[in-house]
């Protein structure tokens, strides 16, 4: 099917909404993507027709629920070109997955070891590693960015040493839209025998990463960024690493045998899946992947690039407007400010006109510190947005500017 945004928009009930008496213009997709009817129906179907707890059940409903949940795991495996389905850990989301790995490395790090993160990271990919360094005595090093919001790879190479044990970098910056050269970052880390975790939260709705080709050690993402439900996501880990790391949480599901003398743990993936999971969420994660693939990531990437180019052109026509994150490799996120106006004031006014953008530091305060700004207005576009919606944004920003200056 040729890419037809008007046809696609019909799949998203929420896009018919009005906000403050105006048509909703939803441009906060970097925070969470909207949900197509197919994903909504999947959740309703589970709770209506085969709700049951999974694994170990002898009754039909439990078997149906288990088949659907493990079927979703297979879909995730195939989508990301992962070698084994047991290398797919279903999580509560990106933050959960990152903490799972940070916890696991308690036993692997010692004083003198070094962890490298980038200056582009979301707090979810900074704080867990700071906590790990506090626990182990390891030292955190930071890859700097330049004025364009692009990582300075020459500095990264200087930071790498035989003391480097772990490297953490996001695939795409949620604050600026910068796409990082993760294949190169991974290759250089592996030359020093360092493991790499990539935070893919902002990437997986825009591109389809091939995790075997990337040779990444860990990759995390959230379903809600991929038109799936909140509270579910994926941690990929090479099986050698996942077998080395201790379980994250103790409980049901993650055990092989429990005695008061000793407990043995389940194998992968269940070692990392204690307790009753978000069953509906996991199944609907699979439905979201099916939906995105039915449109096609080549089409999504091409169309979103069109939106980014158009929005950049139109916004930069506004006098006094500055865009942060001007690298060549960017996805459809535009962070901007208008001289002399606080981003929060712009966000508040455009909301009155039905336009949803995000303002603030976007859980990336180090980036705001680098630019010496309190925050930005962030407009983030998805494949179901339109050029007409960009025109509405530009008109609203101009109105806000005229009201505030
Ligand atoms: C790059 C990145 N990493 C981690 C996270 C955390 O994901 P979860 O909240 O699903 O665990 C986010 C969330 N993005 C935030 C959420 O709201 N606005 C944003 O930009 C993110 O963009």
Automatic annotation (TrEMBL):
Keywords: Pyridoxal phosphate, Transferase. SUPFAM superfamilies: PLP-dependent transferases. InterPro entries: Aminotrans_V_dom, Aminotrans_V_PyrdxlP_BS, Cys_dSase_SufS, Cysteine_dSase, PyrdxlP-dep_Trfase, PyrdxlP-dep_Trfase_major, PyrdxlP-dep_Trfase_small. It holds the Pfam family Aminotran_5. One of its GO terms (molecular function) is pyridoxal phosphate binding. It catalyses: (sulfur carrier)-H + L-cysteine = (sulfur carrier)-SH + L-alanine. Its EC number is 2.8.1.7. Catalyzes the removal of elemental sulfur and selenium atoms from L-cysteine, L-cystine, L-selenocysteine, and L-selenocystine to produce L-alanine. Belongs to the class-V pyridoxal-phosphate-dependent aminotransferase family. Csd subfamily. This is Cysteine desulfurase.
């Amino acid at each position: 099917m040729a890419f037809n945004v008007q046809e696609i928009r019909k799949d998203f009930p929420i896009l018919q909404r009005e906000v403050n008496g105006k048509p909703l213009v939803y441009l906060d997709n970097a925070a969470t993507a909207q949900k197509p009817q197919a994903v909504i129906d999947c959740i309703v179907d589970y709770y209506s027709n085969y709700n049951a707890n999974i694994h170990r059940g002898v009754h039909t409903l439990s078997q149906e629920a288990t088949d659907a949940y493990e079927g979703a795991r297979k879909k995730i495996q195939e989508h990301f070109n992962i070698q084994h389905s047991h290398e797919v850990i279903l999580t509560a989301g990106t933050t959960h997955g990152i903490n799972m790995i940070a916890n696991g490395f308690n036993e692997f790090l010692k004083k003198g070891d070094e962890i490298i993160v980038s200056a582009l990271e979301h707090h979810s990919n900074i704080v867990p590693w700071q906590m790990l360094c506090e626990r182990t005595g390891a030292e955190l090093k930071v890859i700097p960015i330049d004025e364009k919001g692009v990582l300075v790879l020459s500095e990264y190479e200087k930071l790498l040493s035989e003391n480097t044990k772990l490297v953490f970098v996001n695939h795409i910056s949620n604050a600026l839209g910068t796409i990082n050269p993760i294949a190169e970052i991974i290759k250089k880390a592996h030359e020093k025998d360092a493991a790499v975790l990539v935070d893919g939260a902002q990437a997986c709705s825009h591109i389809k990463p091939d995790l075997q080709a990337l040779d990444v050690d860990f990759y995390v993402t959230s379903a809600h960024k991929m038109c799936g439900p909140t509270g579910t996501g994926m941690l990929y880990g090479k099986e050698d690493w996942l077998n080395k790391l201790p379980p994250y949480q103790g409980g049901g599901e993650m055990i092989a045998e429990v005695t008061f003398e000793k407990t043995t743990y389940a194998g992968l993936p269940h070692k990392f899946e204690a307790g009753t999971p978000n069953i509906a969420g996991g199944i609907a994660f699979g439905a979201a992947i099916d939906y995105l693939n039915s449109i096609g990531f080549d089409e999504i990437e091409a169309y979103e690039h069109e939106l980014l180019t158009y929005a950049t052109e139109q916004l930069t026509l506004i006098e006094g407007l500055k865009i942060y994150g001007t690298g060549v490799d960017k996805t459809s996120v535009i962070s901007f400010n208008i001289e002399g106006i606080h981003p929060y004031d712009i966000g508040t006014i455009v909301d009155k006109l039905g336009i949803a953008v995000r303002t603030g530091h976007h859980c990336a305060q180090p980036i705001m510190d680098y630019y010496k700004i309190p925050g930005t207005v962030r407009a983030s576009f998805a494949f179901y947005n339109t050029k007409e919606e960009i025109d509405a944004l530009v008109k609203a920003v101009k109105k806000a500017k005229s009201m505030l200056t």
